[in-house]
């Protein structure tokens, strides 16, 4: 199964010093292909159920990714069912943040994305699956809070 979705909303201003990704950090993630190959999990736990193929920034500045779920593991088959049945349609980005503390001044430094998770309810608004395709089937996409399908052949 292929999935596409928003995994992080529009980045913060570049002057922001905090835990969320800035606009320039999101741009670097995409330009340096930093998400390619990172694991996809369910609810930030358990085994890998897939991996990220690529990422891009949409016209609103959101970080999007295209993921492929495995076909061979039970966990991946369950995750596909969660998506198909509408049980887990949000995405959550897992990343680490290096914090530098000098002279009682904390500063967020490098942020490293470690996984994307399929979740029932994401912590950030607007982070959700926007389309998916099961092998040999029509693409299912979300448009204005409704699901539709079209044939790619």
Write the layout of secondary structure elements.
Layout: E1 2-8, H1 23-31, E2 39-42, E3 45-57, E4 63-69, H2 74-84, E5 90-102, E6 105-119, E7 129-133, E8 139-143, E9 146-150
Parallel strand pairs: 2-6
Antiparallel strand pairs: 1-4, 1-7, 2-3, 3-4, 5-6, 7-8, 8-9
Describe the structure.
- The protein has 2 helices and 9 strands; from the N terminus they run E-H-E-E-E-H-E-E-E-E-E.
- It has helices at 23-31, 74-84; strands at residues 2-8, 39-42, 45-57, 63-69, 90-102, 105-119, 129-133, 139-143, 146-150.
- Strands 5-6-2-3-4-1-7-8-9 form a 9-stranded mixed sheet.
- A hairpin with a 2-residue loop joins strand 5 (90-102) and strand 6.
- It is elongated and about 55 Å long.
- The chain starts with a strand and ends with a strand.
Provide the descriptors you would attach to this structure in a database record.
single chain, 153 residues, mainly beta, nine-stranded mixed beta sheet, 13% helix, elongated
């Amino acid at each position: 199964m292929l999935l596409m979705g928003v995994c992080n909303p529009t980045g913060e201003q570049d002057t922001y010093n905090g835990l969320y990704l800035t606009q320039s950090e999101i741009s670097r993630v995409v330009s340096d292909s930093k998400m390619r190959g990172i694991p996809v999990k369910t609810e930030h736990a358990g085994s890998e159920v897939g991996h990220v193929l690529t990422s891009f920034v949409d016209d609103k500045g959101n970080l999007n990714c295209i993921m492929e779920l495995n076909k061979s593991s039970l966990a991946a088959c369950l995750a596909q069912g969660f998506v198909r049945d509408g049980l887990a349609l949000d995405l959550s980005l897992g990343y680490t943040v290096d914090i530098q503390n000098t002279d009682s001044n904390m500063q967020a430094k490098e942020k490293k994305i470690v996984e994307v998770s399929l979740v029932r309810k994401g912590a950030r608004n607007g982070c959700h699956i926007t389309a998916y395709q099961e092998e040999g089937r029509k693409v299912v996409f979300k448009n204005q809070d409704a699901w539709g399908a079209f044939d790619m052949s």
